[in-house]
Fold this protein.
Amino acid sequence: MRYRVGLKKTSEGYAVWVPGLSGCWSQGDTEQEALENIKDAIKAYLETIDELSKGKESMYVEVG
């Protein structure tokens, strides 16, 4: 799965976030480290959403 991310150089390294996943962000000392860290953050984010959704009624839609 591919996600669009934002990446910004800061005074502390690089900040990275996923605009499509509210609150999903990470950082790293280098651009590459930040991009690797956001992969872990996305996985954790999606696992948390799955856990919070257990037992709740939901549906799926196909886009594009």
User: Anything to note?
Assistant: The chain has one helix and three strands. The beta strands are 6-10, 13-17, 25-28.
